[in-house]
UniProtKB/TrEMBL annotation:
PANTHER family: AB HYDROLASE SUPERFAMILY PROTEIN C4A8.06C, NEUTRAL CHOLESTEROL ESTER HYDROLASE 1. It is a single-pass type II membrane protein. Belongs to the 'GDXG' lipolytic enzyme family. It catalyses: a cholesterol ester + H2O = cholesterol + a fatty acid + H(+); a 1-O-alkyl-2-acetyl-sn-glycerol + H2O = a 1-O-alkyl-sn-glycerol + acetate + H(+); 1-O-hexadecyl-2-acetyl-sn-glycerol + H2O = 1-O-hexadecyl-sn-glycerol + acetate + H(+); cholesteryl (9Z-octadecenoate) + H2O = cholesterol + (9Z)-octadecenoate + H(+). This is Neutral cholesterol ester hydrolase 1. One of its GO terms (molecular function) is acetylalkylglycerol acetylhydrolase activity.
Length: 382
C-alpha cells in the first residue's frame, strides 16, 4: 500500500495541475507534465569504461546508442542488439529520462550488447501515424548491414522492444517489418512490456478492476489515446463507455470485436466475475471522429491472423494491477493461436510501469525482479 501511495503522489503531482491549466485555457493538456519530466532528463551522453553512450539519428529519427565495451580489448565480435521504444502515452517521456537512461544502460551491460533508444516525436507536435512512421523509418535504417556493422551488432540477433505506448510501437513495428519483403534483415524477437494494443474496449476485466490504480488510471489512458489519435479530449466519456459498440454495429466493428473479445481470449482466471460492457445506444459517428480506433498500425491486437503468423517470437510482460493487463494477455492468446512462440511473464504484485522502479529514487522489489527476468529472457532468446 505504501508503494501505491508514493506512486499516486508522484503521478498526480504533475498530471492534476497539467489538466487544470488546460481546463483554464492556459496550456495544452500535458504541457506541465512534460515540463516536469524534462527536469529528470540526463543532460548530454554520459559514458563509462563499460558503456559508451552516443547521440545520433537513424533515418532522421533521433536516438541514443548504449554500447557495451566490456570486451573492447579482445578480438572484435558481433553482439546482441535491442531497438527500444520508451513509454509515456505517445505524449510524455524520453529515453533521456533517468529511469529509461539507466534501464537502457543496464540492458546493454547485462546483455553485453547494444541498445538503441528511439526518440520519436511526441504528441501534440506529432499525431498518429507520425510516431508509427518514425518507428518504422528508424527500424528500417537500423536493420541494414551498414548500421549493424558500425555497431558490431549480429544481424541474426536483433530485438525490438518497448514499454506501454512504446510496446505498442514495438508490436506494430514487428508486424510491419515481418511483412516487408524489401528488408532482408528481420527482428529475431519482440519483447513487449505491459503493452497498450487496442482502444475499442475500455471495460476489459483489467480496466474494470484497476480503473483507479496508479500509475495509469482508466481515464488517463483514454486521454493518451485521444492525444495520439488527434481526437477531441471531450470524447473521453464516449471511449470509456465503449460507445463505438452500437446496438447495430458495422461489419468492421464486428470483425474487430472478435479480435478483442476477452470472453474468448482471456484465461478464465483473469475474467473473474466481470461482464462485457455494451452501451444501450452508443455513438454511430464515433469511428468517423476517431478512425484510428480500427487502424492496425495503432492497434496491433486487431491484426489479421495471417499477419501474426509472420511475426517473431514474443515476450509479453503483464501486471495484475494494471489496466493494460488484458491487452497483453489477449495478444499472447492470439499470437499462440497463430503458432507464434510466446512467453508471458505475469506479476501478481506488479503495476503499470513497475520495471522502471528498478531505477531512480523509488525502487521496489517487483522492479528488480521484472527487470532481471526481462533481461534474462533476452539473454536466452537473442
Amino acid at each position: 500500500m505504501r508503494c501505491y501511495n508514493i506512486i499516486r503522489s508522484v503521478t498526480m503531482s504533475t498530471l492534476r495541475p497539467s489538466f487544470l491549466a488546460h481546463d483554464l485555457g492556459l496550456s495544452r493538456p500535458f504541457d506541465i507534465a512534460k515540463y516536469a519530466a524534462s527536469w529528470d532528463e540526463i543532460k548530454g551522453p554520459q559514458s563509462s569504461p563499460a558503456i559508451r553512450v552516443t547521440d545520433t539519428s537513424f533515418g532522421g529519427v533521433q536516438a541514443q546508442v548504449f554500447e557495451s565495451t566490456a570486451a573492447a580489448d579482445q578480438e572484435p565480435r558481433l553482439k546482441r542488439g535491442v531497438v527500444y521504444f520508451h513509454g509515456g502515452g505517445w505524449t510524455l517521456g524520453s529515453g533521456k529520462m533517468r529511469t529509461y537512461y539507466f534501464q537502457c544502460w543496464s540492458m546493454a551491460e547485462q546483455l553485453d550488447g547494444v541498445v538503441i533508444s528511439i526518440e520519436y516525436t511526441l504528441a501534440p507536435e506529432a499525431r498518429f501515424p507520425d510516431q508509427y512512421n518514425e518507428a518504422i523509418q528508424a527500424s528500417k535504417h537500423i536493420l541494414t548491414v551498414e548500421v549493424l556493422s558500425r555497431y558490431s551488432i549480429d544481424p541474426k540477433r536483433v530485438a525490438v522492444s518497448g514499454d506501454s505506448a512504446g510496446a505498442n510501437l514495438a508490436a506494430a513495428v514487428a508486424q510491419q517489418m515481418a511483412l516487408d519483403n524489401s528488408a532482408p534483415i528481420k527482428f529475431k524477437v519482440q519483447a513487449l512490456l505491459y503493452p497498450t494494443l487496442q482502444a475499442l474496449d475500455f471495460n476489459t476485466p483489467s480496466y474494470q478492476q484497476n480503473g483507479h490504480i496508479p500509475i495509469l488510471h482508466r481515464p488517463l489512458m483514454a486521454r493518451f489515446w485521444l492525444e495520439y489519435l488527434n481526437g477531441d479530449p471531450n470524447l473521453v466519456t464516449s471511449l470509456l463507455a465503449n460507445n463505438h459498440a452500437t446496438p447495430a454495429p458495422s461489419q468492421e466493428i464486428v470483425a474487430a470485436k472478435v479480435k478483442t473479445n476477452w470472453t474468448k481470449l482471456l484465461p478464465v482466471a483473469f475474467q473473474k466475475n466481470y461482464k462485457p460492457i455494451v452501451p444501450l445506444h452508443g455513438d454511430p459517428k464515433l469511428l468517423e471522429k476517431l478512425p484510428g480506433l480500427l487502424d492496425v498500425r495503432a492497434a496491433p491486437l486487431l491484426a489479421e491472423t495471417k499477419v501474426l503468423k509472420a511475426v517473431p517470437p514474443a515476450y509479453i510482460m503483464t501486471c495484475e494491477h494494471d489496466v493494460l493487463r488484458d491487452d497483453g494477455l489477449m495478444y499472447a492468446t492470439r499470437l499462440k493461436e497463430a503458432g507464434v512462440d510466446v512467453t508471458v511473464d505475469h506479476y501478481e504484485d506488479g503495476f503499470h510501469g513497475c520495471l522502471s522502479f528498478a531505477f531512480g529514487p523509488f525502487r521496489f522489489s517487483v522492479g528488480f525482479r521484472s527487470f532481471r527476468n526481462y533481461t534474462h529472457w533476452l539473454k536466452e532468446n537473442l
